[in-house]
């Protein structure tokens, strides 16, 4: 019996894969009606987490007179990094869960619906998905993330991000930090919440790339002449757009840190341009470079395609020459308007497509989009150095 087109082969019984719908925290949110697979509960979840992270800081700093700055260098209401971190980057990281949930599973399905994974390798394909789901649901890993944010994460914030002068969250005596009431909430609740959610995204990216690595170990069927110039794997490059909100949040986090230095400490923004450019390139590389695991398959498909289509072209040209040059054409048949000419042009286009096949499943457009998304939160800071016209010109130059 032929299966309906709405039920692709062997996908009905395969596990539905999601990077976000699992793990202890997800189950906790589900029980408290803060989580779901759609947009319905997203505003509630964003509001709840952002309020826990940011609202106590406002109330405690106002109660102790640190909100507007009584005898301190940097009051809470002037701390741009706190606003950006908890009211922009954090909500974006939470909202990204819905985007990734909806886009990643259809990407995996294409391996099967396009017959890229051969039928004999489907059990191994499903086994790779099962393995990824087990890692996603691991209690030990989420506990490890909590330990990480209260140890390494705290050290990174203290040594690299925290401002070394009197602020709404701490005063300093030498190298010793004295926390205010708002500072205790900031250090032991707000910062760990943000770092945990961000670190969990890093874990999810690891799970996703590990799954793709296992899929790349299968005997994939790629077609060198595929119009996506990636052997049929072009959808993998486009799948990176699902993670664009994470890059935007990273850019926002970076912009918040730079803004505090520029606005509150008077440091020039141009002093951060090398760091900013390096991190933008790095984050785009983090999302796209792991797709290089498919390069051996793509190189092999291109090599085989050149040989196969080269042989086909040679055979076609030999027959064309025999028919139209050596006089083998039927009497009365005219060359002008013959379908053979169009077929010759089609053959040339096909061989050209094989020659232009890339060796990675992404191209300049994916790199440009991801870099632009990461750069976007930094644009307001560029206005402290350049005029709006200059900023627009520089951005367009970078993109094109």
Task: Describe the model.
- The structure is a single chain.
- This protein is mainly alpha-helical and 400 residues long.
- It has one domain.
- Helices cover 64% and strands 2% of the residues.
- The chain contains 15 helices and two strands.
- The protein has helices at 24-31, 42-63, 80-113, 122-136, 139-150, 152-161, 181-216, 234-239, 244-264, 273-288, 295-324, 339-355, 364-375, 379-382, 388-399, and strands at residues 170-173, 176-179.
- It has a two-stranded antiparallel ribbon.
- α2 (42-63) packs antiparallel against α3 (80-113).
- The longest helix has 36 residues, at 181-216.
- It is elongated and about 100 Å long.
Quick gist of this model?
The protein is mainly α and 400 residues long. The protein has helices at 24-31, 42-63, 80-113, 122-136, 139-150, 152-161, 181-216, 234-239, 244-264, 273-288, 295-324, 339-355, 364-375, 379-382, 388-399; strands at residues 170-173, 176-179. Helices cover 64% and strands 2% of the residues.
